[in-house]
Design brief:
The two termini are 29 Å apart. The strands form three sheets. The chain has a six-stranded mixed β-sheet, covered by helices on one side. A four-stranded antiparallel β-sheet has the order 2-8-9-10. The chain has 184 residues and is mainly beta. It has helices spanning 6-9, 47-53, 62-71; strands at 2-3, 16-18, 20-29, 34-43, 78-82, 95-99, 104-110, 120-128, 140-154, 157-169, 172-173, 179-180.
């Protein structure tokens, strides 16, 4: 599970709201060198609507908006909307699957070679409230990022996959160790 700490989540700019409460991750590695990352999305109140609407340049569908906002998947070869999570036999390499209810994203790609070889970059966006004078409708900022590597094998043996997560945030760390809102 990937979740912002309470202190970090409290550092979003005033009059803004974080869209994601937590991301629950599971991974599978196939003998072909392809990995599958499952991302179950738990939204904050109103967060799904923010993600579905997309950024200032929204896509054609809520599923595409979710993939772009949460994964920056605009650079991925294919985003496919699905009614339910596809089985292992149904997935294809270089495809990002997003369920119609936006609760789940499946990323299928070549496995990571090392801990610093990112398989996916998961975003924790926040919406800028329209009451802010500098806000535009649909304005979404990236607050934090979880870089995820999916490496074949696990610590207990060769089966499965290991998930390695590193992160970054736009929040500022003060000299006293407190989180402060990012400056834009």
């Amino acid at each position: 599970m990937v979740q912002l700490s309470g202190e970090l989540a409290a550092a979003i700019p005033e009059d803004s709201a974080v869209a994601i409460d937590e991301l629950v991750l599971t991974a599978t590695a196939f003998s072909t060198g392809i990995c599958r990352l499952e991302v179950e999305i738990v939204y904050t109140d109103g967060g799904m609507e923010v993600v579905a609407a997309g950024a200032v340049s929204p896509r054609d569908s809520a599923e595409e908006n979710a993939a772009v906002v949460l994964l920056n998947a605009g650079t991925r070869a294919d985003i496919e909307a699905v009614a339910e999570v596809p089985s292992d036999d149904e997935v294809e390499k270089d495809v990002t699957y997003v369920t119609n209810d936006l609760s789940h994203i499946t990323v299928v790609d070549e496995c990571s070679d090392a801990a610093d070889d990112d398989f996916a970059s998961l975003k924790f966006p926040y919406s800028v409230q329209p009451e802010r004078p500098d806000a535009m409708e649909g304005d979404i900022h990236e607050f934090a990022t979880a870089e995820v590597a999916v490496i074949p094998g696990s610590q207990g043996g060769s089966d499965g996959a290991s998930i390695i997560i590193t992160g970054d945030t736009d929040a500022e760390l003060t000299a006293t160790g407190q989180w402060a809102p990012p400056e834009y």
